[in-house]
Write a structure and sequence with these properties.
The chain has helices at residues 18-21, 39-51, 67-76, 91-103, 112-116, 179-198, 204-226, 231-250, 255-267, 271-286, 291-298, 310-327, 344-352, 355-358, 367-375, and strands at residues 6-9, 26-30, 54-58, 84-89, 126-131, 143-148, 153-158, 166-169. It is of the alpha/beta class. It has a six-stranded parallel beta sheet with strand order 1-8-5-4-2-3, sandwiched between helices. Strands 6-7 form a two-stranded antiparallel ribbon.
Length: 378
C-alpha cells in the first residue's frame, strides 16, 4: 500500500498552512467539543474562515462514534460541494473526517451504508488530518472504525483512498491531554507497533515503520506524560503514533485489538484503556512464537541488558510492559472497569468474531485460549 501523504511537523506548523487554503471554495472543518475551544485550534479556525468563503464547522463528533452518529452528522451539514476536509482531533474525529472526505465528493453515489456493506470508494476530496492525541495513528491508516451498537461491536471501513493528502504533527496541540489520556493513547500506539511487527502478515516495510516507532515511543512516552511542556517528547510521540498507523497500513494488528473491540463496543471502555489491560496477557500468549522479534524490540529499550539471551530478552520485554502499565497508572483488571465473570461468554464469542484481526495472530488461537486470557484479568 502506498502512503502518499505529505507530512508537516513541528512547533508552530499551523501558522504555515495558508497555501493549502488558497483557491478553496468550501471547507468542512471537523473536530469535537474538547478540541474546538483550544486557543490554537480556535485561532486556526478563524484563519480558515478569513481565507475561505464558506466554512462548515462540525464540532460535535462524539468519542467512539457509531454509524448512527456519523449519519446524524452527515444529515446536519451540506457536504456535496465541499472541496477540502480538515480534521483536528483524536482518532474518532480523524476517522469521521476520512469518511466525510469520500462521502462529499461531487457526483458520487457512495453512501455510508454502502461503505459499511464493503463497497470501496474510488475518490475523495482533498483532506488534511491534524491529530491532537498520540496514539491512534488514524492519520496514517486506511481505516475508519465505527461502533455498531446493534451488534455490540465495532466495524472497520478500510480503503487506501481515505488516506489524507496532508498530515500535520503539531506537538503543542497535545499539551492539553490529561495524563490518563496521554498514557492510554500512548499504549494504543505501542499496541499498533508491537502487533504489526509480530503479526503473521508482517513484512519488511511494516517492520521498518514499527521499529522506528517503537524506539521513539520507548524514549518518549513516559517523558511526555510526566512533563506536558516537553515538546520534543510530545513530537516524538506523534511520530511514534504515525509510524504505528503506517505499520497498520502495511500489516495489521491482531490479538490485543481483537479482544479489546468487544470491551469498547458493548461496555464503552476507552480503546487505549482496553488495550492496556490486554497488552501483557496477549503478549505473554504469543511470546513463545515471537522470541526473535521480542528480542529485537527489547534491544530498543534505553536500559536494555544486551548480555541476555534472546529467550531471556523476550521474557524481560513482557515484564517491561507489565511495569510500564503500572507506572502509567492504567487499569490492569477487568473488575476495575465493572466487567464481571458473567460477561466472559459474550466477550469470548465477540472477540473470536473479529476474524479480520484474529487471522493475523502469529499462532493458533482457540476459544479456550481467549477465555483464559480474559479470566487472567479477573
Amino acid at each position: 500500500m502506498h502512503i502518499n501523504s505529505t507530512i508537516l511537523s513541528g512547533q508552530g506548523i499551523l501558522n504555515d498552512l495558508h497555501y493549502l487554503l488558497e483557491e478553496r471554495e468550501h471547507v468542512l472543518f471537523i473536530t469535537d467539543q474538547n478540541i474546538v475551544n483550544l486557543p490554537l485550534v480556535s485561532d486556526f479556525i478563524k484563519k480558515v474562515q478569513d481565507t475561505v468563503a464558506v466554512v462548515t464547522l462540525v464540532d460535535d463528533v462524539p468519542p467512539e462514534p457509531s454509524h448512527h452518529d456519523v449519519t446524524n452528522l452527515l444529515n446536519k451539514m451540506k457536504i456535496s460541494n465541499a472541496d477540502l476536509v480538515i480534521g483536528v482531533g483524536g482518532g474518532s474525529v480523524l476517522d469521521v473526517a476520512k469518511l466525510v472526505s469520500v462521502l462529499c465528493v461531487k457526483n458520487s453515489n457512495v453512501t455510508l451504508e454502502l461503505l459499511l456493506d464493503g463497497i470501496k470508494p474510488t475518490r475523495r476530496c482533498t483532506s488534511i488530518l491534524i491529530p491532537t492525541t498520540a496514539g491512534t495513528g488514524s492519520e496514517a491508516t486506511p481505516n475508519a472504525i465505527l461502533a455498531i451498537p446493534e451488534k455490540c461491536t465495532k466495524q472497520g471501513i478500510i480503503s487506501p483512498v481515505m488516506l489524507p493528502d496532508y498530515v500535520c504533527l503539531v506537538p503543542e496541540l497535545t499539551i492539553s491531554m490529561p495524563n490518563h489520556i496521554a498514557s492510554s493513547t500512548g499504549i494504543d500506539a505501542l499496541c499498533h507497533l508491537i502487533e504489526c511487527f509480530t503479526a503473521n502478515i508482517s513484512n519488511a516495510v511494516g517492520d521498518n515503520y514499527a521499529l522506528i516507532g517503537i524506539e521513539k515511543l520507548f524514549n518518549s512516552l513516559e517523558r511526555s506524560v510526566k512533563d506536558k511542556t516537553d515538546l520534543e517528547a510530545k513530537l516524538n510521540m506523534l511520530w511514534a503514533s504515525y509510524y504505528g498507523g503506517a505499520a497498520i497500513a502495511h500489516a495489521g494488528t491482531h490479538l490485543v485489538h481483537a479482544m479489546s473491540y468487544p470491551l469498547g463496543g458493548k461496555y464503552h471502555i476507552p480503546h487505549g484503556v482496553a488495550n492496556a489491560i490486554l497488552l501483557v496477557p496477549c503478549m505473554t500468549f504469543i511470546r513463545d512464537v515471537a522470541v526473535d522479534k521480542f528480542s529485537q524490540i527489547y534491544d530498543l529499550l534505553p536500559d536494555a541488558d544486551l548480555t541476555l539471551t534472546k529467550e531471556e530478552k523476550s521474557h524481560a520485554l513482557v515484564n517491561y510492559f507489565r511495569d510500564l502499565v503500572k507506572r502509567l497508572a492504567l487499569p490492569s483488571k477487568l473488575q476495575e472497569l465493572n466487567i464481571s465473570p458473567d460477561d466472559l461468554p459474550y466477550l469470548v464469542n465477540a472477540a473470536l468474531d473479529v476474524k479480520r484481526l484474529m487471522n493475523n495472530v502469529p499462532k493458533k488461537v482457540s476459544k479456550h485460549d481467549v477465555l483464559a486470557i480474559y479470566q487472567s484479568l479477573l
